[in-house]
Amino acid sequence: MAVSWLRQLAARSCVPVYPVWGEHDEALLATLVLSTQIELVDSPRHASVLLVVGEIPATLRDGLKHVHDQLPSPFAVVWFRGAPLIALNAPIHVDEADRLVDTLIRTHRELMLGQRDSASRLLPDEPPNPWEGLGDDGHGGEGMMGGTPYGRPMAMNMQDDLRDGLTLDSLTFRLGPFYPALPSGLCAEITLQGDVIQSWETRHGALPQRLAPVFYAARERPVPIAELELARARYHLVQLYRGLHLAGLERIARHALSLARQLSTASRLDGLRRQLVRSGIFHLAAMDGGQLDTEMAARLGGPAARAAGLDADLRMDDASYQRLGFRPQCRTDGTVRARWEQRLAEIDQSLQLARQAEPDGLHTANTEAVETPRGPWSAKPPQDASALLDQLLPGLEWDEAMTLIASLDSREVAETSGRANI
Amino acid sequence: MIESLASLLMVLVVLALGPYVVAVMDRLVATAPRGALASDVWLGPLSRAAWLLTQHANATEAPDWQAWRLAPALYLALAAVGLALVPWSPTLIATDLVTSVVLWGSVEALATVVIFLHGWSANAVLPLIGAYRYVALGLSYILISMFVLIGAALPAESLQLTQVVASQESLWNVVRQPLGLPLFLVVGLGLTFWGPLNLADSTDLAGGTAAEVSGPSRLVWECARAVMLVAFSGIAATAFLGGWLGPWLPGPVWVLLKTLFVLALLLWLGQWLPRVAPERCVTLMWIVLLPLSFVDLVWAGVLALWA
Question: In what residue span(s) does the NADH-quinone oxidoreductase subunit D domain sit (chain A) (predicted)?
């Protein structure tokens, strides 16, 4: 069958990919975002290819099926270093990172040219709960109010408003586990009034994250400080990318990721910092809230704790860092703004430490306790702190809440490094 | 008769080419000064449109189908009405109403309804939040727009856009009323929910009112937003940059150049400014920009009396 010119043209388009992140290291993100042929999208409705990275725990597979079935036809699924769901026929599986982009492009083109069938649906196309057509208007309640049509409560003003006393209908729904503005795996039941969060109940914590291999190596043997600090700066730049993408500053976000990818001891943060200040993000975005108290800050550890004024950093106990004159940098107010400023300061500090340590090939001296970019790792790695969101988010507007989550980094650190992605 | 047909043709040409021009310019602005692959810049928008045309339009659970499908078309129709109001020359204009400024004001007001409809009718949470947010924003920017446009109409003593242009023969409004164009640009970003004022279709809502839309419906929605940007730029060029007025070149060329200038400015703002937090946005509108629009109006009134 002759392929229409429309499909041939569509086959040349940038590949819209919706990523579902299992356990992975962050290097893969830069590969995808900086590819001119790939576009990572925020909604499965906007994708042609679903990319599943790493293993997805059994508890989240239902969530994955829901995401899978939201992609409009024609679509395909690419599995990167993870076992495909049993229900799928002829899955596309990739193990090598350098083949991933090509595979995504080829898959999209095959779909557009009709050389590959669209993936089949995994769930029945019917409401998750039966219609409960009671009441005068068949909506399931009494009069014009209430009821649970399709098993979900109608929007009702069941709770007092937290903000200004103007009570609106409350809306309860579940978000996650693969919502792009949340850490992968995080799932919550949320009640909103307007766009103000009335309640946030975490139902499933975020999946553990894998750090760069050098952090795991640092737990076993002395490693070059320059390498460790560059990996730390890279980690913070990736977090910065997420925050900037969320804020709609895609151009500067890509700059941050590009800097992370090419990072060396000769790199400078000045250009990126200048762009951030000129964009006005510290004044225009919702950065005044999200204040952590001392207990919360201590529980999170790492940059979040230092942004709240806690002078805690395991590098202070390392003789090699002491030789370099290391002193942790701290902020005081523990807000979203303080956390982003803290990250920028720590990137600068890491680059400076790497430059100091590189000429002598200075190695770490302490393998018992390692300060990871997420927090301290002595007896055990930093633990999942998603439950803190239940206290922090009620009362915030949606935008404030998402900005706070992006600044917080509450994920657990995986105990093993797995395989490096690139 | 010929001029009526020509002006209608202009509207249709801009409707057809506007989305492509906006997409290309946005990519150029996004990649400047480093530059991108030429094929991606020029062919990218076309191949993306082709992909959206081949993608199926999805369903949500019990949407209001008619409203959901109609909303993008209605937004496009409103943008077309805006385009029809732009005078390309003293005679080359599709709709030269004596109340064309008022009609543009109604386009802005109706856009709020249509954008809300787009988010509400999907019967899904994230589009609904985007829709609510837009209503809050819409109420804020429409008042600013009203005062600023009345200020632009005062020197002309007319609500007819051709008269507004003619009144700028000696001095363009951008100079005569220095607050006018900057305030009106904020209105433009709000009306098209672009860049810093993209609260309706934002990343924190996974695309907001368009989060659940795919295929041809999404293409129409994106085209409508782009055409609205062009229509707004045309109105801004008319009201503040002297429309067809200018030396050497024919009037329509001046309108085109000025429209592209405003468009590039909006796209640049969209690339370089972060999304403003909704609460901060509304505060900024009511506490800072609305009083400034009063000042602009008083300034324009005093100048008109003095003249």
Answer: 266-357
- Whole-angstrom Cα distance, residue B196 to residue A248? 8
* Coil/strand/helix, residue A92: strand
Candidate from A46, A127, A281 with C-beta closest to B274:
A281
- Reported pTM: 0.93
> How far B38 CA lies from chain A's nearest CA (Å)?
12
Question: Which CATH code is given to the segment(s) A213-408?
Answer: 1.10.645.10
A16–B51 C-beta distance less than 8 A: yes
Give the pLDDT confidence of A248-269 residue by residue, as tens digits: 999 999 999 999 999 999 999 9
Test A150 with B212 for CB contact under 8 angstroms: no
Cβ atoms < 10 Å from Cβ of A92: 20
Domain A5-112 in CATH 3.40.1790.10: no
Structural domain containing residue B60: 2-306
First and final C-alpha spacing in chain A: 40
Q: Which one, of A197, A191, A195, A190, lies nearest residue A176 by Cα?
A: A190
Q: Of B69, B135, B76, nearest to B107 (Cα)?
A: B76
Cα pseudo-dihedral A195, A199, A204, A208, rounded to 10:
70
Which is it for the CA torsion A68, A71, A75, A77, positive or negative? negative
**pLDDT of A421 strictly over 50:** no
Amino acid at B103: L
- On the CB side of A226, how many CA atoms lie within 13 Å of its CA? 13
The whole-angstrom distance between A4's CA and the closest CA on chain B is 11
Using N-to-C axis directions, what is the helix angle for B290-306 and B125-153, rounded to 10°? 20
Using H for helix, E for strand and C for coil, what is the string for B282-303? HHHHHHHHHHHHHHHHHHHHHH
Q: What 3-state class would DSSP assign to A363?
A: strand
